[in-house]
Amino acid sequence: MATWSNLSLQDGASPLKKKFSFFPDPTMIVLLFITVIVGYSLNFTLLINYTNRNMLHGHFIETIWTALPAITLIFIALPSFRLLYLLNDSVNAMITIKTIGRQWYWSYEYSDFFDVEFDTYMTPESKLKNEGFPLLNVDNPTVLPMNTEIRILTKASDVLHSWAVPALSNKIEAPPGRFNQGTFTMNRPGMFFGQCSEICGAIHSFMPLVIESTSVNLFIKWLSKMM
């Protein structure tokens, strides 16, 4: 339930999400430092009416205020490049699942396990239990094992959809007619909620998805029931 104390990023359920959550902290420190320096300089120049000819026509000071922003951008860009590299698809995925976006529900295929297939629809509020979340719960959660590299193949059967789970830092476009892919790893058990983040039609906001992270043993038991 949303409260004033929960107005923040979701707790990370994957190593990549945790890295994304910590990335804004040093960036904000740099931005605050720049804001203080620029604000002090403007205050000193405008309010005190101080003018120095070296500030207007000085090669040395021009070199400084050209080099410092370049160094700052490099300081911010290097961690960004590292995160972009980590977003690349992994070749070590142990499980591959397919998800197909439809108007307006998701279909899943576990092709590695004897073609286990099922659809997931949003649970109506009239059928929700006390611990359920309106507009987020589904009738068939997608069960996956934690601490396992998972490849997900997404596509759409009609219009453009987007498979997004904020806790996993995943947002994978599902284009019609061809597969798009991404990878993720869940490092703790739990229920992780997401939604279609592409405006796909009249019932776009009623197209949630739920990922249930379990141990390998519970995952195998769930598979045996679905076969």
Word description of this protein:
This protein has helices at 15-22, 24-46, 53-56, 59-86, 216-226; strands spanning 95-102, 105-110, 116-120, 142-145, 150-156, 161-165, 170-174, 180-184, 190-196, 208-214. With 227 residues, it is an alpha+beta fold. It folds into two domains: 15-86; 95-226, Immunoglobulin-like (Sandwich). Strand 2 (105-110) and strand 3 form a beta hairpin. The chain is elongated, with a radius of gyration of 24 Å. It starts with 14 loop residues before the first helix and ends with a helix. The relative contact order is 0.15.
Task: Kindly list the characteristics that best describe this protein.
5 helices, CcO_II-like_C, single chain, translocase, mitochondrion, alpha+beta, copper, CcO_II, Immunoglobulin-like, 227 residues, elongated, 2 domains
Point out poorly predicted stretches: none
Total strands: 10
Q: What is the CATH domain class of the largest domain?
A: Mainly Beta
Shape: elongated
**Main sheet record:** 5 strands, mixed
Could you say what the CATH architecture of the largest domain is? Answer: Sandwich
SSE diagram, text form:
Blueprint: H1 15-22, H2 24-46, H3 53-56, H4 59-86, E1 95-102, E2 105-110, E3 116-120, E4 142-145, E5 150-156, E6 161-165, E7 170-174, E8 180-184, E9 190-196, E10 208-214, H5 216-226
Quick take:
The protein is of the alpha+beta class.
